[in-house]
Amino acid sequence: MSWKDDYKKKLVSVEDAAAVIKSNDQVYFTPVCSAPVDVINAICKRKNELSNVMMFSALLLYPFECFKGEFKGRIGYTTFFMGPIERKFVDQGNIDIISYHFGDTAWFTENTLKPDVFIAEVSVPDEKGNMSLGLLGTFNGHQATKLAKKVIIQVNHEVPYVYGSKEAFVNVADVDYICEQDHKIPELPSIPLTDMEKTIAHNIIPYIEDGSTIQIGVGGLGNAVGFYLENHKNLGIHTEMFVDSMVALAEKGIVNGSKKTLHPGEITISFGIGSKKLYDFMNKNKVLKAYALSYINNENVIGSNDKFVAINNALMCDLTGQVCSESIGFHQFSATGGQLNFVRGARLSKGGKSFLTLESTAKKQDGTVLSRITAALPPGAVVTTPRSDIDYIVTEYGAVNLRCKSISNRVKEMISIAHPDFRDKLMKEAKEVKLI
Description:
This protein is 27% helix and 22% strand. With 436 residues, the chain is of the alpha/beta class. It folds into two domains: 3-180, Glutaconate Coenzyme A-transferase (3-Layer(aba) Sandwich), CATH 3.40.1080; 195-432, Glutaconate Coenzyme A-transferase, CATH 3.40.1080. The strands form six sheets. It has an eight-stranded mixed sheet with strand order 13-12-11-10-14-19-23-24, sandwiched between helices. A seven-stranded parallel sheet has the order 4-3-2-1-5-7-9, with helices on both faces. The protein has a three-stranded mixed sheet with strand order 16-15-22, with no helix packed on it. Helix 7 crosses helix 8 (220-226) and helix 14 (407-416) packs antiparallel against helix 15.
């Protein structure tokens, strides 16, 4: 049987695909802008027919009905990276959170996720019946296809065909049900850079050498750095997330990968999130290659890139350099993600550096201004990156290198990049608890 005949045999409606789900199933679907929206919506419509179904995904850009509290006990949802839409619903009690290092995604998929059903949104098939897993499917889609008892795909003509390793594709032969439904790919809104973000970015730029290979994490601060590298030469990219600032650098020839020691000449990624321009850039671009997240975030793989530069965001930091990037007290804000993988990978790189960026203050709803640099992290705050792994911490007041520094020196360095209005208070608190 040809793959085309196999395709026709497996073709069903969106509603018939949703009908495959049964009570007690664990259902994993591709995250963020690769979510198979129509199939998931059809499953949600079956709320009263189902019980104890658990859906898994991450950082979704669509407000699915199953986020609501009224779905509890029927169709639940677990995220492994909280996004702004999920945060709006989490207090309703039907969203749970798993936090793990993204470098462990293969282990997580096999030992924790263990999907009964995997649902992916994919491109149209190529001449061999291979469908690209698109923008986010390389997160772990190939592995999930092998592990799941049932595999459903939604073919969407809008999905970019992204080149990469074998993990970037799924073949018609490896799926059980195929449905076709087109829709526009959700974009991550591009928020104008603030003056604060521009200042922080400028504080990092002098430390980045020509010929470096870079990784930029989610969020405006990290992305801002990419827009200020226009005077650099021969940069490379090895990153879990491909972002808009990287497209700009590639189009201007600043990113060409010519000095990369691993996958030279290649833009090496796991997934892409951003604007339609980014999605169009990824489509059938032979310079860009997508790999499974467990490979991209493997610390030894990262460290194989000489002069590797990791740039990620933080929420707050204590005076000794413990960094919290995922919670506000006990309230989960995002998740662990790949930050520590890249911090440690940069340590293994010849000439590598890692930067964790944050604004020095935050403003509460009542207008109260708080220092994001504190003598101690508040109760519930998660230590995403231990102080022993820190290289540079950067605010709008400068960049300090804490690597292998004594506690007292760390404290003085951290106070030097705190907001001036809080420095005396921080020094007093440091002396009271004998950090100095």
